[in-house]
Amino acid sequence: MVCCEQISAKITNSLILTQAQYFMKFLFDFLPILLFFIAFKIPDDPKEGIMLATAVAIAVSIAQVTYNWFRHHKVEKMHLITMGLIVILGGATLLLQD
Q: Into how many domains does the chain fold?
């Protein structure tokens, strides 16, 4: 017979794992934004910074969607919308250099 302490420990461990998974998903969702701001601070010139940061955001967004597709065989709508906006608007920024 399983005692209450063992059941309680299993439930607690599964809750901790679930919270860790939610935190990792949160970080994964904000990865393009986080890397955008990091890349923006690298060059001294703000124009170079925005160009580098935009290119990084485009690359990371595409990599994020590709990773989700190969890992889970599905992609969240929010990732597709974010990638689409970043590629279109970021591509315009890089193309026009403005």
A: 1
